[in-house]
C-alpha cells in the first residue's frame, strides 16, 4: 500500500528555482561608470586655455596686491621694501599681455578669441534680460560664451592695454613731457581702481557658479549645465 503523498512533494509542482544572476566584475562596472560619467560631461577648455587664464590671473593678482601696497599707507608700512614692491608691480604689469600672446599658438584658444569677439542677435537678448534682472535660463540665450563674458573680456583687454601704456610713461619718464606723464598717472590710478572693482565682481560671480569654476579647473562641465546655461553651444 502506497503512503499518501505529502502536499508539496511532487517535483512537477515544485516552484521554479530563483534565477541566478552572474556577478559583474568590478573592473567592468568601473569601466561602465567611467563611460557614463564621461557621457555626462563635455569638454569646455583645453589645457592651453586654462594655462592662459591661470597665468593671467596670477599676474593680475600680483599687480593688484602690489598696487595696494603702493597706494595704501597701512599696507606699505606692513610690507615695507617699497623698491621691491615697485619692481614686482612694474614687471607683472609689463608681462600681463604675454600669456595671451603665447596662447595664440593654441588653435582652440584662437577659436575662443573669435567667439569672444563676435556679438550676435542672441547676445542683445541676453544683455536686455540681464538689465531687467531676468535670471531665467530661457531668457538668456548664449553660445559657448554669454554676452556678459564677451563684454568683460573686451573691457579687461582694453583696460590692460591702457594700463601698460600709461605705466610705461610713468616708468620711463624720459619718453614723454611732464604734462603727458601727469595725465598718464591720473588715468593709471583711476583705471586701476576701476579694474579692482570689476575684478571683485568677476570673482564674486565665479564664486557663485561652481560649475563654471570646475570648467576652468578641470576643463570639462556637466552636459546638463551646458544645455541650461549655454543652449546655443554645440561642443
TrEMBL record:
Keywords: Cell membrane, Membrane, Transmembrane, Transmembrane helix. Pfam families: Ni_hydr_CYTB. It is found in: Cell membrane. Residues 44-210 form the Cytochrome b561 bacterial/Ni-hydrogenase domain. Residues 1-30 are annotated as: Disordered. The chain crosses the membrane at residues 51-73, 93-109, 152-170, 190-208. It comes from the Bacteria. It is a multi-pass membrane protein. One of its GO terms (molecular function) is electron transfer activity. GO terms for biological process: respiratory electron transport chain. This is Formate dehydrogenase.
